Amino acid sequence: MIVEEVMNSTIHTLSPDDTIAAALQLCRDFKVRHIPIVDKEGKLAGLVTDRDIKDATPSILQKEAGNEELSKPLQLIMETNVIIGHPLDFVEDVAAAFFEHDISCMPIIQSGEIVGIITETDVLHTFVKLTGVNQPGSRIEIRVQNKAGALFNILQVLQHRRVNVQSVLVYPDQQKENSKVIVLRIRTINPAGAIDDLKKAGHQVLWPNIPGVFT
Questions:
Q1: Which domains does the chain have, with CATH numbers?
Q2: Of 66, 128, 178, 189, which alpha carbon lies 20 to 30 A from 86's?
Q3: Measured between alpha carbons, how far is residue 97 from residues 3, 57, 72, 111, 119 in Å?
Q4: What is the tens place of the pLDDT at every residue in 41-71?
Q5: Smallest Cα–Cα separation from 48: which of 68, 67, 24?
Q6: ∠ at Cα 2 (83, 134), nearest 5°?
Q7: Rounded CA gap, 196 and 205, in Å?
């Protein structure tokens, strides 16, 4: 899935000369946590987050100092070294950038103009939908040798039972170096028959593996 399919194209921006008070009000009015800062030509100049605003906002007990701080321009607190993305980037690459750089949003730029913004919440919602964990179904974990054809063999077993596979993930096996763990989401509430078929075909089912229930 690409970024333009999940990004928010309704963007609330401010300029470097706008005040911290204006940013605070914008966050409250539109319930946003990230504000792109654009210059007079509409080009991205920086980024301000709700955390930046909170750090720059004094305690309510410091009323006089608070008014002075809130009147300061955003250029004093905005982040100028902003990591950006493109509408045709893959969402998983954005997630990797979030993880690597410890950021929570990414302005999306096309032809020099900001066309959207994607946040960690957008990425989380996307992965939930892609993995199907928000849909009724069951999870099966299978340990396989790290070699070609392992997934094909598993899907063949499920095809014979006419099981609809919602998603497939492959993880490194933490217990065995030369193995992988294939995680399947299947569209059935009772996976007992599918698990029985997988075991009869010689596959090692790690989950569910409840003695007396899935044997």
A1: 3-120 (3.10.580.10), 132-207 (3.30.70.260)
A2: 128
A3: 13, 29, 31, 21, 11
A4: 999 999 999 999 999 887 654 555 567 889 9
A5: 24
A6: 110
A7: 9
